[in-house]
Amino acid sequence: MRNLKFALRTLFRTPFVTAVAVLSLALGIGANAAIFSLFDQLLLRPLPVPEPERLVSLGAPGPKPGSQSCNQAGDCDEVFSYPMFKDLERGQTVLTGLAAHRGFGANLSFKGEPLTGEGMFVSGSYFNTLRLSPELGRLLGPSDDETIGANFVAVLSYSFWSARFGGDRSVLGQTITVNGQSMEIVGVAPRDFEGTTLGTRPLVFVPITMRGALSNGFNGFDNRRSYWVYVFGRLKPGVTLAQAKTALNGIYHPIINDVEAAQTGMSDKTMARFRSKDIAVEAGQRGQSSMHREARTPLFLLFGVTGIVLLIACANIANLLLARGANRAMEMGVRLALGAGRRQLMVQLLTESVVLALMGGLAGLLVARWTLHAIAALLPPEATTTLRFELQPSVLAFAALVSVATGIIFGMFPALHSTRSDLIAAIRAGAGQITGARGAARFRAALVTVQIALATALLIGAGLFMKSLINVTRVDLGLKVDNVVTFGISPVRSGYDTTRSHLLFERVEETLAAVPGVSGVTTSMVPLLAGDNWGTDVNVQGFPSGPDVDNNSRFNEVGAGYFSTLGIRLLSGREFTNADRLGTAEVAVVNEAFTKKFNLGQDAVGKFMSTRGPDSMNIEIIGVIQNAKYSEVKQEIPALFYMPWRQDGSVGTMNFYVRTSLPPEQLVRDIPGIMKGVDPGLPVENLKTMPQQIRENVFLDRMISILSASFAVLATLLAAVGLYGVLAYTVAQRTREIGVRMALGADALRVRMMVMRQVGTMILVGLGVGIVGAIGVGRAASSLLYGLKGHDPIVFSAAVLVLVVVALSAGYLPALRASRVHPMQALRYD
User: Which phi and psi (to 5°) does residue 484 adopt?
Assistant: First the structure.
């Protein structure tokens, strides 16, 4: 306690210096704590279930003949067919339970009040495998999925129950409508449990056997060629991952070879791969989510960037402590002479550095909070509902740990150095003699050089990301999205059949077209530039077909006037009209990439294609359009064909695009009211302007660019402060020497050059090391860059120029001060 009180008195004796040190540490620790919060949620935190370390995720990589459907829970290598899941569930002996799940879009209604959100289909073993207990009522069990389409029961998530129902316990037994089906509420999931897929927060859990009733047109329960189920399990005590994999493949391989290998359409080579494929078994304590993989590189990168900022801030603190230790040499010498032990003095000095770091950590919590709010502003709404942008206990513990570690590690050398001098040397130093502290001077110079190197690497990295973002914003989308508003509706989820849905879509089109200022309305089944990819195999007239031939194409079903409304240029033929509907000849429009892939040349219009096999050829190509972006702004434009949704009798969801001459934000405000006039019980989904949709499509690029640039600027300023501080201290220490030089005839220019030579040496060494580090950063981040290499010479040159200017500016002020030293005053300097 005595050391603590003395440390506080010492620190507050120089309040300005202490405040600068605390601010530097706050910026470094706060930035790290903010990124750690995301890192913890996305990559570290296990599911809130008993013994999550015993959970395992199963995958099914390898050839998958037939249809594949995957979502946020993982890519298509991880999905199984439902019959295969049931076979594994019946035959396995190494797991206490095997469970299946699948997320879905849900239109909910309770007592006539509609709501749109997410739901999750789960097997009867889902909650038992997770070993969860209900907050209220019961959870779904094996008896709830014994019969396909027969169990109209639902479990509410705790957050949905508490927010929508106010925690009303009488909700049990009441009815909630899910995608048009009345479901009895039988229970509430436990507190804090939001499903097993990060990025998806289901409002309701329903039996997986109800997918056919809740998803229009689904019939994949008996089809071994329909892959859509995500599977996980819980290891029995004592069973390892390797043992579980061996046992599960012992069940899997006979089914693959004796039952499923009878499928036709695969070449001998593909069949060999099909027969030899294995089940993948991986640790599943964090659940199943593609976000684990997608967030890894960006978060490691940002964590590295903030770590560098903290190192630069800590280097400044170490220099500050060294300078303060030199000024206290007399004090340390006297205390040693009076019998104080070196260990005792080191504990006192380390206490001061730790207290300083803890003060920086406390202030850093405010910085972390502001940083998290800034990150939230850069993310799309879907991400902000998934993540928590508040200071969790784990973040507080991390900030405390970093603060203590910072105080000890970066206070150790100054403490060792400050207690190393003997009494006579300290007294001589205090008497004004020129003394040697060369080791400390070299250490301070080395720290500044390291700061310059780190700042160089950060500036170059930020420059690469900023140029990549500029390249993204300049991408030719092939369409015109200004003054376009988009939204979606899913009437099939609200009890509409497909006939009524078609009539509703046309009514919405007519209603929107009548709104003042609207100049065009069109529709599409697959939302534009929203990350969705729908593909299928096609047979095209004149193009070969057969095993191992790549005849896959992306597709979309769109409304009349789609291309003209969105500014997509028609190269030949015509686009769709309202006359292209059920009962008329099937037609398609293809893009340039499609004509190139399938060798259609200039004569694509009039040729035929099919999605039903080479013997059908029932779809006539009536038009060719220029290439336009489909799913991702950064994605290479794929082969793509369009068909009119009016010729598809099973469409149950639709996305609308409304071009207006008025400010689009006004139309965004008006559309909910317009849609209530059409059907007050139908929720409007994903209402936004198309420019906003595009910004969300490249949110990761924007977030990394803005954050890395902000942190790089901060690091450069901290490095400049460090350089200024070291040079100012050095000039002060060399005041008598400079006075002697000037008394012997040295002019002001020569004195300035003497100081600037020291600056130049540190800059050159720091730049050299920093450029080498930046090359490594560029290589590591190459997958995140668009339209440039990780060693772009323009970016490197600009970053080096900026850093040289900043560093020379920071060094010139102490040099100028040195050149103004008066010789007579300097000779009296003590």
Answer: -115, 130
pTM of the model: 0.82
> Rounded CA gap, 350 and 258, in Å?
71
pLDDT at 347: 74
Q: According to the model, what pLDDT value does residue 419 have?
A: 66
Place 133 in a pLDDT band, splitting at 50, 70 and 90.
Answer: very high
Q: CA 188 to CA 283: how far, in whole Å? A: 27
Q: How far apart are CA 196 and CA 640, in angstroms?
A: 34
Q: Are 618 and 483 in contact (CB under 8 A)?
A: no
pLDDT value for 291: 86
Tokens 């799940």 belong to residue: 101
CA-based nearest residue to 332, from 410, 407, 413, 416: 416
CB-based contacts of 828, cutoff 8 Å, min separation 6: none
Residues 6+ apart with CB under 8 A from 675: 489, 508, 682, 684
- For 153-192, letters b (16+ CB in 10 Å) and e give bbbbbbbbbeebbeeeeebeeeebbbbbbebebbbbbbee
- Which of residues 762 and 823 earns the better pLDDT score? 762
Higher pLDDT, 448 or 566: 566
Query: Tokens 């959870």, residue?
Result: 139
Is 13 strand, coil or helix? coil
**pLDDT value at 588 more than 90:** yes
Match 């120089």 to its residue by tokens: 14
Which residue reads 């779904």 in tokens? Answer: 140
3-state secondary structure of 549: coil
| pLDDT recorded at residue 736 | 60
Phi first, then psi: what are they for 521, rounded to 5°?
Answer: -135, 135
Give the 3-state secondary structure of residue 570.
strand
| Joined tokens for residue 499 | 């006939």
Mean pLDDT confidence for 217-233: 90
* Contact predicate 88/100, CB 8 Å: no
pLDDT at 746: 65
Tokens of 810: 């920071």
Contacts of 56 by beta carbon, 8 Å cutoff, 6+ apart? 95, 232, 233, 234, 235, 241, 244, 281, 282, 283, 284
432 pLDDT above the threshold of 50: no
* Distance in angstroms (rounded) separating the CA atoms of residues 406 and 312: 12
**By three-state DSSP, how is residue 44 classified?**
helix
Residue 482 confidence (pLDDT) above 60: yes
Query: For residues 384 and 378, what is the distance between their CA atoms, to the nearest angstrom?
Result: 9
| pLDDT reading at 413 higher than 80 | no
CB 37 within 8 Å of CB 734: no
Dihedral pair phi/psi, residue 225, rounded to 5°: -100, 10
- The strand ranges marked E within 706-797 are none
Residue 423 has what pLDDT?
44
**Pairing verdict, β 80-81 and 226-235:** antiparallel
State how far the Cα of 512 lies from the Cα of 516, in Å rounded to an integer. 9
The candidate with the shortest Cα–Cα distance to 154, out of 197, 117, 129, is 117
Query: Once rounded to an integer, what is the mean pLDDT over residues 776-784?
Result: 85
Strands, E, within 153-219: which ranges? 153-156, 175-178, 181-188, 204-207
Least confident segment among 260-264, 380-384, 414-418, 673-677: 414-418
Mean pLDDT score, 681-709: 89
Exposure class string for 3-31: b at 16+ Cβ within 10 A, else e:
beeebeebbeeeeeebebbbbbbbbbbbb
CB atoms within 10 A of CB 769: 17
Residues 348, 350, 355, 359: is their CA dihedral positive or negative?
Answer: positive
**Facing residues of 539 across strands?**
610
Mean pLDDT computed over 740-754: 69
Which pLDDT belongs to residue 134? 96
How far apart CA 516 and CA 526 sit, in angstroms, is: 27
